[in-house]
Amino acid sequence: MNSIRKLLRDLRGELDEAALVLPVLLLISLGLVNLGILGFAAMNAGNAANYGARMGSVAQSDPTGVAASSAYQMLSAAPVGTYAVTVTGSGLPGDMMVVRVSYTVPNYFAGLASLFGVSAPGEFTSSASAYFRQEGW
SS3 of 110, please? Predict the structure, then answer.
């Protein structure tokens, strides 16, 4: 019986330590997941803008439509958050075609941040742009 009490007394210190460390580790893990999602959305938007601008710059007819549909096609492969694509350019040879992909990703850490008296936005919003010259045929 004494050995069981001794064992429980020994475990008590470890449980106290775990009770202090575990919440901190969970908050750090949640923050890292949140930043990972934001990074993935940024890379996804940048790649879609680049692909859309490249496809639109070599299109012979309706280059802005081709650029927008190509960008949306890339975004549909791995959707994280919400995206909006805008394309500008006249379609004339040598003119600059600009594809801008704006994205919004939810911030899962915002609710927890308010518990610590810190204000955090509910969503992260940013954009990625790509510039290509319209090819002449």
Answer: helix
